[in-house]
Write a structure and sequence with these properties.
There is one protein chain. By secondary structure, the chain is α/β, with parallel strands linked by helices. It has helices spanning 12-21, 29-48, 84-93, 142-151, 169-178, 208-213, and strands at 2-5, 53-60, 63-70, 74-80, 98-108, 114-122, 130-134, 137-138, 159-168, 184-192, 194-195, 201-202. Helix 1 (12-21) packs antiparallel against helix 2 (29-48) and helix 2 packs across helix 3. It starts with a strand and ends with a helix.
């Protein structure tokens, strides 16, 4: 297991993270989605440095060029609905990737307590493949761990890269302790210390799904 916080080094990623947090910028839902796509692309580029490559001959109009191309089979996965813009950004880089989607939500009971329900998943086989599992927020970590266990019904990947632009300290610790195996890398853009009694990250950014796609019932 490895945790990589890209926000600890200065790059344009930090600008995009600041904008998805900014309550004034958040009023433009298209800008919010675009920034998440940009963030997804940055994480995908960094992940590409960890993949396996092969030497390939490419025919140009003037001859033959030898190039290094990705040899891993990739499955890009996300939790609906907040993860979709981030997922699209990853797909912009790994355009040949297969895709997996998981429907998970919080079911609230008394005293703001909730349990995570995973009701639906669609996925190709992930056996021996590289999985890039993205979700915008890592709050408690419960939905991510349960969603990942659901993916494992379709095989065991060679490696899993988890992408969460904003995480809580609790969520990072929970994922590291509760993932079913240690063969994964957790990529984050920022780690915040506090969770509210409703398990929202502080300062966080609010409800990513609502900001991207509008409020729900």
């Amino acid at each position: 297991m490895e945790v990589i916080n890209l926000g600890e080094s200065n790059s344009i990623l930090n600008q995009f993270i600041s904008e998805i947090r900014d309550r004034q910028v958040q009023k433009d839902s298209m800008r919010f989605r675009t920034n998440l796509e940009r963030i997804g692309g940055i994480f995908a580029y960094e992940i590409s440095k960890r993949l396996n490559y092969r030497r390939t001959e490419v025919t140009t109009p003037l001859g033959i060029a030898e190039c290094n191309t990705v040899s891993d089979s990739i499955v890009a996965a996300t939790i609906l609905r907040a993860g979709l813009p981030l997922h699209n950004g990853i797909l912009n880089v790994f355009d040949k990737a297969q895709n997996a989607f998981i429907a998970a939500y919080r079911k609230y009971g008394k005293d703001n307590r909730f349990e995570i329900k995973v009701e639906y998943a669609t996925s190709p086989s992930i056996e021996g493949k590289v999985v890039i599992f993205a979700d915008t927020m890592l709050a408690t970590g419960s939905s991510l761990v349960l969603g990942y266990k659901k993916l494992l019904e379709d095989g065991i990947p060679s490696h899993t890269h988890i992408v969460c632009p904003i995480a809580s300290c609790y969520g990072v610790d929970y994922v590291c302790r509760n993932m079913p195996h240690d063969n994964f890398t957790l990529w984050v853009g920022a780690i915040d210390e506090e969770l509210t009694n409703k398990s929202y990250i502080v300062p966080g950014l609010g409800d990513a799904g609502d900001l991207a796609f509008g409020s729900k019932l």
